[in-house]
Structure formats: C-alpha cells, structure tokens
C-alpha cells in the first residue's frame, strides 16, 4: 500500500490493493499460498519503476507527503462521522453521499484554521534550526530527530494523516524556545 494509490491519496490504505496484485500477476491473489513472495515482487517492481522514472518518483512522494502532512484535520471528521464504508452500520434508507458532502464542507473549515497553526509551527521550527544551529540542546535535537524519524518512516509505510499526530506534537515544545531574531541575517 505504501507504494500504491489509495482511495484518498497516494500511499493510503486501499481495499482495491488486491486488484493491483491481479494486474501485476494477472491472477487471483487468493490462489497463491506464497503471498509474501508476491508482495516482495510487487515492491521490487515499484522500486524499479521509481528508479527508471524519476518524475513518477517525485510525483508519487510529493503527493503522498502532501496528503499526510498538509491534510491536518487528520481526517477526523471523515473517519469519525461517515458511514459510507458499509459494514454493519450501513442502511439502505440513508443518503450517505449527502452526509459525506456536508462532512467534507465542514472539514475544509477546520483545515483552514489548522493549516495556519501547522505553518506557524513548521516556520518557527525552521527558524530555530537556522538561528540556533550551533547551540541546539540535546532535548531539542531529540524532538527534531523524532519528527524526522516519523517523516521518513511514513514515506516507506502506509500513509494516513492521523498517523503523524505524534510527530507534530514532538515539535510543539520547540515553539516555546526563545530565539534571538537579531541573529537572523538576511
């Protein structure tokens, strides 16, 4: 899933993943007892595609990261309020499409507010790195390494914006650090 396009965006979960396997092997995955071997082949295939097509690589990971890090409502309204996923709660007499349309509109309002907060957080963290690059404490460095570790891990793992919440929280203490803006030479 980490290297395929999911229902919401690149690298996200997809229940159509088995269709991708069918496309790759032109057979039904349930017929294969050696699924681990097949999945390994698929990952090798996708890595090979990225190696031979750098534009596809850049496009894929740009959209994957944007869908994780720029969708900062963490899909909470969609995952906690939508019932279009079927299952035991699904009812024929309910217009789930209309419900989801309303959810998407309200999610956009939340996203505007949260985008402002996330931009301030990232900007201040970047300024902290630039201005205090020679005097960063071990505690600050630990928080930055935690953030970077999460960033790189989720580039290789399934993406969802809600998975990155701990890494955003790791940056919050950094905005309380006082920095001397006079040291910033423009």
Secondary structure: elements and pairs:
Elements: H1 17-25, H2 35-52, H3 54-69, H4 76-81, H5 96-131, H6 138-156, H7 165-171
Structural class: mainly alpha
The helix/strand series, from N terminus to C terminus, equals HHHHHHH
Unreliable stretches (pLDDT < 50, length at least 5) are: 19-24
Q: Give me the count of strands.
A: 0
Describe the structure.
The protein contains seven helices and no strands. The chain has a domain at 1-69. It has 186 residues and is an all-alpha fold. It has helices at residues 17-25, 35-52, 54-69, 76-81, 96-131, 138-156, 165-171. It starts with 16 loop residues before the first helix and ends in a 15-residue tail after the last helix. 60% of the residues lie in helices and 0% in strands.
């Amino acid at each position: 899933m980490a290297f395929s396009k999911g229902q919401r965006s690149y690298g996200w979960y997809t229940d159509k993943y088995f269709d991708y396997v069918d496309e790759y092997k032109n057979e039904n995955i349930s017929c294969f007892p050696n699924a681990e071997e097949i999945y390994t082949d698929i990952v090798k295939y996708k890595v090979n595609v990225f190696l031979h097509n750098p534009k596809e690589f850049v496009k894929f990971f740009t959209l994957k990261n944007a869908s994780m890090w720029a969708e900062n409502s963490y899909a909470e309204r969609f995952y906690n309020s939508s019932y279009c996923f079927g299952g035991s709660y699904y009812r024929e007499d309910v217009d789930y499409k209309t419900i989801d349309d309303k959810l998407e509109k309200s999610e956009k309002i939340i996203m505007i507010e949260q985008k402002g907060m996330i931009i301030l957080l990232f900007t201040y963290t970047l300024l902290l790195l630039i201005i205090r690059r020679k005097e960063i404490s071990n505690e600050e460095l630990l928080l930055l390494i935690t953030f970077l570790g999460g960033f790189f891990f989720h580039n290789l793992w399934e993406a969802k914006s809600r998975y990155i919440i701990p890494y955003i929280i790791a940056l919050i203490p950094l905005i309380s650090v006082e920095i001397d803006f006079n040291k910033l030479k423009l």
